[in-house]
Automatic annotation (TrEMBL):
InterPro entries: AAA_22, ExeA_AAA_ATPase_DNA-bind, P-loop_NTPase, SPOR-like_sf. GO terms for molecular function: ATP hydrolysis activity; peptidoglycan binding. Pfam families: AAA_22. Signal peptide: none annotated. Gene3D superfamilies: P-loop containing nucleotide triphosphate hydrolases (3.40.50.300), Sporulation related repeat (3.30.70.1070). Residues 43-170 form the ORC1/DEAH AAA+ ATPase domain. It comes from the Bacteria. This is Type II secretory pathway, component ExeA (Predicted ATPase).
Length: 442
């Protein structure tokens, strides 16, 4: 018997890729979606959506692609590591008819002409870029140039960037700083609260066909919240495993005992209480019209509620920056873990002082310095089969945050790094790796 039969479900409730019916409207997700739809169909700027890995950015991106009206031609870029040329081709292939029919002009100019044709019909074109934080600078710049309106002309291309916090660092690169300055709306996807985690579990289970008493006990929900920090991707994984476990034990309800067997034995950070008003109260811009939206929300986090409530009159708008509450750990990191990481960081600092700026490395992971367990797990499992002497850990505070990164290799040329990256990409787990110049790490 599968756990679907055991719990009376029509389909798995916690898959990462699901039908639109499984889109959770809580946690301000529905409000953010409505605000994005309005921004894309009415605004003339670039939009950015940021959130931690597992916060639901990809799901929101897919929902946006499916909810935009027919008057908007949507190009959904799921592989940000494509070259600029490949990105041009993919964009063109998604615009009927193909903009590559005339091969006399460069692809960039042919695509621009096609975008002009679409705009002349009164329609719009939007490119949704998932995982934009790992898109090469050159590709971001190329897409951005298409989004710059010529003097006296309307914008040919609209862009929505979905990415982790590293995207902000990337946008500070002098080569594409102009792109950051054209971002008019910033949306932040926050982790779910304890109450929202409970609502999420109930919503997903009901959508999958469950009826009857709650499957997850209050204590089990507490455990899931603490273990996942309210990140939807982690909630899905943990809940699915717990349901499998409960099925094998012939249980009607899930308690912490079923979840503990699927949670690594490690301390879990707990979020302090957030000030949701500070996170969301930014501008009432979209409810008072496009002109006010551009003036008030430029480079400030956009309020989903304000954007989706555009029909209501408003005389004032509040402005506040999106802030992240501090973290603390239930238990301290072990001395052995600290010593290991500090040794790697010290060795890497020494190596960076000696390696030429013209060399390249493969970026494997970047995360908050407090997530030592994640880093240790990555070192012990993800790269265990690679040459340990080529694995390095560096510390960065360029963004004002204490972050750690894991890099691999020391390649004298970019082509050599690309060859190794191609080999690594044969493993699905390596699909998020990308190439960096050592000069960017100093």
């Amino acid at each position: 018997m599968t756990y679907l039969d055991h719990f009376g479900l029509r389909e798995p409730p916690f898959l990462a890729e699901t039908a639109p019916a499984f889109f959770f409207p809580g946690g301000k997700r529905a409000a953010t979606l409505e605000a994005l739809i309005y921004a894309v169909t009415h605004d003339e700027g670039i939009v950015k959506v940021s959130g931690t890995q597992g916060s639901g950015k990809t799901c929101l991106c897919r929902m946006l692609a499916g909810r935009l009206p027919a008057s908007v031609h949507t190009v959904y870029l799921t592989n940000p590591l494509q070259t600029p040329e490949e990105t041009l081709l993919i964009t063109a292939e998604n615009l009927p008819p193909s903009s590559l029919a005339d091969g006399k002009k460069p692809p960039f100019e042919r695509l621009r002409e096609r975008l002009n044709d679409i705009r002349a019909t009164g329609q719009r074109t939007v490119v949704l870029i998932d995982d934009a934080h790992i898109m090469p600078i050159e590709t971001l710049g190329m897409i951005g140039r298409l989004a710059i309106p010529e003097t006296g002309q309307e914008r040919l291309l609209h862009i929505v960037l979905f990415g982790q916090s590293e995207l902000d660092i990337r946008l500070r690169n002098p080569e594409i700083r102009w792109l950051r300055e054209r971002i008019t709306h910033n949306f932040a996807l926050d982790p779910l609260s304890r109450q929202e985690v409970e609502a999420y579990l109930t919503f997903r289970l009901r959508t999958a066909g469950h009826r009857g008493q709650a499957l997850f006990s209050p204590a089990a929900i507490d455990h899931i919240y603490l273990a996942t920090e309210g990140l939807i991707g982690s909630i899905n994984e943990l809940a699915d495993k717990a349901m499998h476990r409960a099925c094998t034990e012939h249980l009607a309800q899930i308690d912490p005992q079923q979840i503990e067997t699927t949670v690594p034995a490690k301390p879990h950070p707990v979020r302090t209480k957030r000030n949701n008003a500070a996170i969301l109260a930014t501008t009432g811009a979209l409810i008072v019209g496009l002109g006010a939206a551009l003036a008030l929300s430029r480079n400030t986090p956009t309020t989903p509620e304000a954007a989706s409530a555009r029909a209501a009159p408003a005389s004032t708008s509040a402005a506040a920056s999106t802030t992240e509450a501090p973290f603390f750990s239930l238990t301290s990191t072990s001395t052995a873990t600290t010593n290991r990481l500090e040794t790697l960081i010290t060795d890497t600092e020494r190596w960076l002082r000696e390696v030429p700026d013209s060399h390249f490395v493969i970026q494997m992971l970047r995360t908050d310095a407090s997530e030592t367990d994640r880093i240790e797990d990555f070192l012990d499992n993800e790269v265990a089969n690679l040459d340990a002497t080529q694995i390095r850990v560096y510390r960065s505070r360029l963004s004002g945050q204490d972050r750690l990164g894991i890099i691999y290799g020391d390649f004298p040329t970019k082509s050599a790094a690309q060859k190794e990256l191609k080999r690594l990409n044969q493993d699905k787990s390596a699909s998020q790796y990308y190439i960096r110049s050592t000069s960017k790490l100093k």
